[in-house]
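Check out one such.
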Amino acid sequence: WGRGGRPGGGRGVRAPRAPRRSGGAVTFARTLMIYVARRFAAMTVAMLAALAGLVALFDLIELLRRAATRQDATCGLVTQIAALRLPFVAMQILPFAILLGGIIAFWRLTRSSELVVARAAGVSAWGFLAGPVAVAVMFGALATAAISPLSSAMLARAERLDAQFLRNTSGISALAGGRLWLRQADPGLDPRGVAILSGRPVGARELNAGEAFRLSDVSLWRLSADDRPLSRLEAPSAVLAPGRWIIADAVAFGADRMPAPAQRIELPTDLTPARIQDSFASPDTLSFWALPDFIEVLEQAGFSAVRHRLHFQSLLALPLLAAAMALLAAGFSMRSARRGGVAQMIGGGVAAGFALFVIDKITGEFGEAGTLPVVFAAWAPAGAGFLLPTPPALHLEDG
């Protein structure tokens, strides 16, 4: 018998303690996650504002240089164009702002030993990284769903002002570069027939009253579903009215190649002047929500929609890419300062971000050329972004 009448020899045997409640640990982990997420978000916003302002400043200088020889281009107009491009610039540099802001935020937390103490208290690295990753995904989703429509509208306005005052070119004629070729459905002679329309776009100053779009020197080929020629028309002009082409003085050539008397022909169409112009404009000038319907109309009209599909998939992949950038920043900046090599680790993170930028550009070029599938070309940078920080993050968690 031990002391106090308890069995166990000379030393008493303590009764087993009741298991401690884990509510305090869970609260501490949640509070730490929110704290790290707030530091990460603040530094990302600051970095985004700094980078966007720097790029906008260089853009303004370039616009001022181009406007020096233009009498109509005032300083206010140039400033307006630069301001209209600002949301588009912010969209482009958002992943790099997340990377650089995350590197600075995690490095400051590591230098002050806050993350070291948290890990010593038993909090997993994946636990306090959940907050920053969620913030990065939120930034990416907000940019795709909300900033993209605003950016596209403002960029389209900026491009129109740039073309009108700084390049002295505007309208379809400048975008088409000569003759314009259009393809659309034509159920008039064949239920599944196709019409191919070619002509020279007429400038806005040469349009008559009530005309929104007109082609001159028009040729129209009407084909069957199996691409068999049914008829060919030649006309001096064709006017695009709501829901139809109005072709005056059209001379039709049948299978015998003999011309028929000139007559007025109306060809139903789903095309509008805005859709024709948007087909030649950059996909960045189209809203994320308008892209699916526009791609469908574009393909029905015979235009290539590869660039628009690639842009749409890239916007869908932006939240995933933002999360990858957050993990990349954590994997290359959370090393303890006492181990040395902090500059090398931060430099490695910046180099990895630049590598992702190169991968994005290369896959985008291959996607536009049709060498790679559009979905793979758009999502490959985000997938590669998750592979790069995995070894450093696992090493960090292993200690």
User: Anything to note?
Assistant: The beta strands are 180-185, 194-201, 214-223, 229-241, 244-253, 263-268.
